[in-house]
């Protein structure tokens, strides 16, 4: 089982207090992840503050743009992979510029980049950034990924679609990795289908193992219909983690955390299919022994990668402690 950790690029006010991590501390967390043996760090992508965060905090959070963050951080590490979990592709309207940024970062990081894309959890962000803009964000994202593939593979790339158009673009260099790894993030069944058809991985969030098992079967079925080997696709859920000395201690800390409130805020959007689920049972909350058993259950369901695991923490030092505990007490038993 591959273990990765969430990097707080855009999580102040959402999963962590305001303020939380400075640029220096984001780099420190990346270096620590590498030293502890994590495969990768995963940061998310927001442009403006969500309403529930504004209501909860008197000052706005700091949101760090993930691609620029990685361009600065990657040279200060040697092995660590950097993933976007997720990049809200429909908000990046110029797909040629996005392709150029991704290909450049792939080279400058020496092929240590994975991009998971999604439609975005908060419609209010789109209303703020693109007033009056109307689109089926799922269709737009799917078209964007297809357009990226054309730009990444063809010498003279052209595309004429519903949302994106370009003609005779000679975009070089192509990404260093072939194929360039694109995952689809989301719990909606369409995210699973898009992963099977176009991606190298699928990244759900907070999804129970029983549902993941059903979706993995669908992932393999759809992949086979499109001439692809579903067993080669990464199944990489994002989960919340807190390891306590006892189950009760871990649950109490989780329910006091900003992460708990964040999950509640998503019940109307990306987690609506899990609105009645037990968040403690689904996520990696408990003693080290409990977490190990939960991970083994996920592995039996078809999970290959604990991707961008977010640890409950009120400070960077507490986050570092949880990363250390997981690395020492859990990772040796699930490798």
Question: How would you characterize this protein structure?
Answer:
The strands form 2 sheets. A 10-stranded parallel sheet has the order 9-8-7-4-3-2-1-12-10-11. Helices cover 43% and strands 16% of the residues. The relative contact order is 0.14. The chain has a single domain, classed as Luciferase-like domain (TIM Barrel, Alpha-Beta Barrel). The chain is globular. The longest helix has 17 residues, at 137-153. The protein has helices spanning 23-36, 51-56, 66-73, 95-108, 123-129, 137-153, 189-198, 209-225, 247-255, 258-265, 279-282, 288-300, 316-329, 331-334; strands spanning 2-6, 40-43, 81-88, 113-118, 157-160, 165-169, 182-185, 201-203, 234-235, 240-243, 284-286, 305-311. The termini are close together. The chain has 14 helices and 12 strands. With 335 residues, the chain is α/β, with parallel strands linked by helices.
Query: What is the CATH class name?
Result: Alpha Beta
CATH fourth-tier homologous superfamily: Luciferase-like domain
Major sheet strand order = 9-8-7-4-3-2-1-12-10-11
Q: How many structural domains in the coordinates?
A: 1
Helix content: 40-55%
N/C terminus separation: 5 Å
Count of individual helical segments: 14
Residue-averaged pLDDT: 95
CATH architecture: Alpha-Beta Barrel
Radius of gyration: 19 Å
**Could you tell me the number of beta strands?**
12
**Low-pLDDT runs:** none
Order of H and E elements: EHEHHEHEHHEEEHEHEEHHHEHEHH
Give the class from helix and strand content and strand pairing: alpha/beta
Q: What proportion of the residues form beta strands (DSSP E)?
A: 15-25%
